[in-house]
TrEMBL record:
Matches recorded under SUPFAM superfamilies: P-loop containing nucleoside triphosphate hydrolases
GO cellular component: plasma membrane; transmembrane transporter complex
Keyword Acyltransferase: no
Name of the protein described by the UniProt record: Putative ABC transport system ATP-binding protein
Record-linked Pfam families: ABC_tran (PF00005)
Alphabetical list of SMART domains matching this protein: AAA
InterPro entries: AAA+_ATPase (IPR003593), ABC_transporter-like_ATP-bd (IPR003439), ABC_transporter-like_CS (IPR017871), ABC_transpr_LolD-like (IPR015854), MacB-like_ATP-bd (IPR017911), P-loop_NTPase (IPR027417)
Keyword Transport: yes
Length: 228
């Protein structure tokens, strides 16, 4: 299979007053369609920054990013948001669910940006909740769910619009071992059986084992191996 993502000579520099912080430099990376990639590296090495660029949450200072043959590095905020809504699902360490809404309503949220009817939104959200094994918890609010269950609701929300790409930033960082394995098993199923391409940042070597392979960032560049 071909590359879903092609990154060339990518750089990200944050300007803070007169000080420039070069967070990523000379990143060259291909990610094959259907891959499950783990991204590791020390705190502050630029993992979240790179993930956010891949998912179109941020734009680079220099270099190019194509996803599915489309350049996203030059898109303005509006077109980029549209592109994200159609192509990317996000999973974060702290779930980012809306506390006042039921699991069902949380999963429906991304569909408010689409043309689907309210009945279709409900149905698609119910399908996604079933896929993550939480159809019986659909009416629960986040505070009425365990951490692992909340993360599975967040995964249902990430997949409800059927995106090609899932980007996950330390999705098991706040979970106990068993819940982490449930979430990782679910990501593996989404990769193997539903064809999702996954890029996952993690600090946990056991989590990285669920991926097909692992890349390491160090001080803003990709390195062959983790430095001991
Ligand atoms: N908005 C910003 N302005 C200035 N510097 C930033 C900004 N966001 C991130 N940085 C800097 O960029 C560097 C990389 O941050 P990033 O969040 O990508 O690291 P990380 O590898 O995800 O770390 P962690 O494992 O702790 O999550 C850090 O030195 C950070 O201080
Ligand atoms: Mg981070």
């Amino acid at each position: 299979m071909g590359n879903l993502i092609e990154i060339r000579d990518l750089a990200k520099v944050y300007a803070r007053g007169k000080q420039k912080v070069e967070v990523l430099h000379h990143i060259d990376l291909n990610i094959a369609e259907g891959d499950f990639l783990a991204l590791m590296g020390p705190s502050g090495s630029g993992k979240t920054t790179l993930l956010n660029l891949i998912g179109g949450l941020d734009t680079p200072t220099a270099g190019t990013i194509s996803v599915g043959g489309q350049r996203i590095d030059q898109l303005g905020a509006g077109p980029l948001a549209k592109w994200r809504a159609a192509n990317v699902g996000f999973v974060f360490q702290f779930y980012n669910l809306m506390p006042m809404l039921s699991a069902q309503r949380n999963v429906e949220l991304p569909l408010l940006l689409t043309k689907l009817s309210s009945a279709q939104r409900k149905q698609n959200a119910a399908i996604a909740l079933k896929l993550v094994g939480l159809d019986e918890r659909a009416s629960h609010k986040p505070s009425e769910l365990s951490g692992g269950q909340q993360q599975r609701v967040a995964i249902a929300r990430a997949i409800v619009s059927d995106p090609t790409l899932l980007v996950c930033d330390e999705p098991t960082g706040d979970l106990d071992r068993q819940s982490a394995e449930d979430v990782l098993g679910l990501l593996r199923t989404l990769n193997r059986e539903h064809g999702k391409t996954i890029v996952m940042v993690t600090h946990d070597p056991k989590a990285a084992e669920y991926a097909n392979h692992t890349l390491h960032l160090d001080k803003g560049t990709l390195v062959e191996q983790a430095l001991a």
